[in-house]
Amino acid sequence: MQKVIEITDFSAPELDVYARISENQLLNRHEPEKGMFIAESPKVIERALEAGYQPVSFLVETRHLETQARELLCRCPEVPVYTAALDVLTRLTGFRLTRGMLCAMRRKPLPAVEEICAGARRIAVFENIVNPTNIGAVFRSAAALNVGAVLLTGACSNPLYRRAVRVSMGTVFQVPWTFFPEDTGWPQKGMECLHSMGFRTAALALCEDSVRLDDPKLMREERLALIFGTEGDGLAPSTIASCDYTVRIPMSHGVDSLNVAAASAVAFWQLCAEPGRSL
């Protein structure tokens, strides 16, 4: 039996997760087993449920209870559902809900780097990408273009921040990902980890000795890790120096670089999405 609760008191502690707890507080670094995140929109919530994430509660616009939210709510009959009109929910959360539905969910323990890379031939590594919109966008491209796994350095924005999840359209729940452990120094120990798993490493960077993205040598690599840098400065010099290849995307009209989301999509298309190839 669904427990539907009409919102009458904005200060109710059950609503803190939607209204008064920050993304960093939800992450709960000190007690990660208690960490949560917010999934937004029916499609995103559906993908999270299919990936095995546990719902804690729903926040649903009243008019959607019997329409687009109905099927998802029926899958979670014991989970409380808080509801109100859209203007009430907007005042509560501080933003307009996408398709009238949010879900607070438990985080899962992060898998080991070796675990998610075990069967992958092409992986992506992101160094210090702090913008959650960019994180969401790179995951959507990774899912669409057959990237086997995504690895992130410690300073990256968390892929389960609400904006990253929404921009990704829930593909953060479909592509295996994890952070390098804090005691795995990047880039030196991180590169050693990648090489120990049989990956050759390719830094996307503007250097004089860069090879073109369409260089046949890259396509012939059995296992390849594509490494992308920050939105402003790109990859650290020490990271570039540690890689087997430095790779550039050929450009015209005097343009020297692309946003990391665009650059990764181009690289994934060239090196990960070849028709008929098993990745």
Name some characteristics of this structure.
279 residues, alpha/beta, seven-stranded parallel sheet, five-stranded mixed sheet, 12 strands, Alpha/beta_knot_MTases, SpoU_MeTrfase
Descriptive report:
- The chain has 279 residues and is an alpha/beta fold.
- The protein is 32% helix and 19% strand.
- The chain has 12 helices and 12 strands.
- The protein has helices spanning 16-19, 23-27, 42-50, 70-75, 86-93, 113-117, 132-144, 162-167, 188-196, 216-220, 237-242, 260-272, and strands spanning 4-6, 36-40, 55-61, 81-84, 101-106, 122-126, 149-152, 177-179, 200-204, 211-212, 224-228, 245-248.
- The strands form 2 sheets. The chain has a 7-stranded parallel beta sheet. A 5-stranded mixed beta sheet has the order 1-4-3-5-2.
- Strand 3 (55-61), helix 4 (70-75) and strand 4 form a beta-alpha-beta unit.
- The longest helix has 13 residues, at 132-144.
- The protein is elongated, with a radius of gyration of 21 Å.
- The N and C termini lie far apart (44 Å).
- The model is unreliable at 275-279 (pLDDT under 50).
